[in-house]
Design goal:
There is one protein chain. This protein has about 425 residues and is α/β, with parallel strands linked by helices. The strands form four sheets. A seven-stranded mixed β-sheet has the order 4-12-9-8-5-6-7, with helices on both faces. Strands 1-2-3 form a three-stranded antiparallel β-sheet, sandwiched between helices. β10 and β11 form a beta hairpin. α13 packs across α14.
């Protein structure tokens, strides 16, 4: 049997094609992250087999599904989706994400916090130009602090290459919230998915493939923002799930959510801790049935509730970036790694954590963060295959195995049908909760 080369696998995955500058060659780093993800998906197959249907996920598809469906291509220090940028600071690098209207509106206040005078930016490109100029004159930490203070995602790229074992594995923490239950299983389990966008829904999708019933919870005023993005990607994540629409501003909406949280075998949520606390439904303050598993996904962990993050800037915070050469410069520059890579890594690890918890009886709160997951993958064991080369024809050469492989584009995942319309299953879910 031929020895598997992680770099050639990275080239075949589609993720390498998404990493680097558009007019430069694709970047081989960080190939060890894909190899580690392969071990995680193998462990997920084992864990789901213990309490449900075995889920054998393709690591390459998990990382590149959105890019494949949306037709994204690499943009170096601009994220594939265009909302995040890696900016050179006075002493390093910082990632900033301007994906929401409020983020763009906060730019003048960010500049004022950095002591920058000048006309107020009137458009997104002017906003980026102003922040980029301010970043160049500011320490990275000062820039990130000024941006985060306005509720806008920002992250400093750690100095140096992460060393193996520098971040904990597995990338989650567990605390006890109820007694374990010997009846805990994924097959037939009810999972309340309060999350949105990518990491949480991917976790729910994988657990649904293991046989769980997924109930996606949204509010009329803040439905999942991914619904307005690529429809095929949303369908891939949510096919077969039920949709519950509940207005948490009303007593009936809060009562429906409370009833679901009391009944569910697993809860997935990705809100700031204070959001559920304001509803009186924080996991630390409500009772839990025996064996219930609560997965809390945050940007930086429940111990740092004030910091927001999305997949691209969180990956930078964890040190998970590619490094690309620039003509005329002696040193390589960081570039975004694949597509918001902290999101799919967190979603897969979250699914593994839930599956393992249920197999052990559950009754646990699992705390996992986008930054923590990215940091753990950035610290994956380094390659021991020696140097590799990208040939002019776009293939990667592995001298040790004496093999080459083309750098492939991402491949689209198989779709299993459309997801439910917003709130389409609300009446049925409420009727079921009334019988519980």
């Amino acid at each position: 049997m031929l020895e598997r080369c992680p770099v050639l696998a990275w080239a075949a995955s589609g993720a390498m094609a998404l990493t680097g500058y558009p007019d430069g060659e694709p970047v081989m780093s960080p190939a060890p992250a894909l190899a580690l993800l392969g071990r995680v998906t193998d462990q997920l197959a084992e864990a789901t087999l213990a309490t449900g249907n075995p889920v054998r996920a393709d690591p390459a598809v998990l990382l590149t599904a959105r890019a494949a469906l949306a037709g994204f291509t690499r943009h170096g220090r601009i994220s594939l989706g265009g909302a995040a940028r890696l900016l050179r600071a006075a002493d390093g690098w910082c990632a900033v994400t301007l994906s929401r209207t409020d983020d763009i509106a906060a730019v003048p206040a960010i500049l004022a916090g950095l002591g920058v005078d000048g006309p107020e930016p009137t458009g997104i490109e002017q906003a980026w130009n102003a922040i980029e100029a301010a970043a160049f004159a500011s320490p990275a930490e000062a820039l990130a602090t000024a941006v985060q203070s306005l509720g806008v995602p920002a992250a400093v790229l750690p100095q140096g290459v992460p060393s193996p074992g520098s971040s904990p594995w597995p990338p989650w923490q567990v605390t006890r919230i109820s007694a374990p239950s010997p009846a805990g299983r994924l097959a037939g389990a009810v999972i309340a998915d309060l999350s949105s966008m990518w990491a949480g829904p991917l976790c729910a999708r994988l657990l649904g493939l293991a046989g769980a019933r997924i109930i996606k919870v949204e509010t009329p005023d803040r439905p999942d923002g991914a619904r307005t993005g690529n429809r095929r990607f949303f369908d891939w994540l949510h096919a077969g799930h039920q949709s519950l629409l509940a207005d948490f501003r009303t007593q009936s909406g809060r009562a429906a959510l409370a009833a679901l949280l009391a009944t569910a075998d697993v809860v997935i949520e990705a809100s700031r801790p204070r959001a559920l606390a304001n509803l009186g439904l924080a996991p630390e303050t409500i009772p839990h049935k025996d064996g219930q598993v609560w997965l809390s996904i945050t940007g930086y962990g429940r111990a740092e509730p004030g910091q927001v993050a999305f997949g691209d800037d969180a990956a930078v915070a964890g040190g998970l970036v590619g490094w690309a050469g620039v003509p005329g410069q002696a040193e390589d520059e960081p570039v975004f790694c694949a597509d918001a890579i902290a999101d799919p890594l967190t979603g897969v690890c979250g699914a593994l954590a839930v599956a393992r918890s249920l197999a052990e009886g559950g009754g646990q709160l699992i705390d996992i963060s986008l930054r923590g997951a990215a940091a753990s993958f950035a610290a994956a064991p380094p390659l021991d295959h020696g140097p590799h080369y990208v040939r002019p024809d776009g293939t990667v050469s592995c001298p040790q195995s004496k093999r080459d492989h083309a750098v492939l584009l991402p491949r689209s995942p198989e779709l299993a049908g459309r997801s439910a319309q917003l709130g389409a299953d609300t009446d049925a879910v409420l009727a079921w909760l009334a019988t519980c």
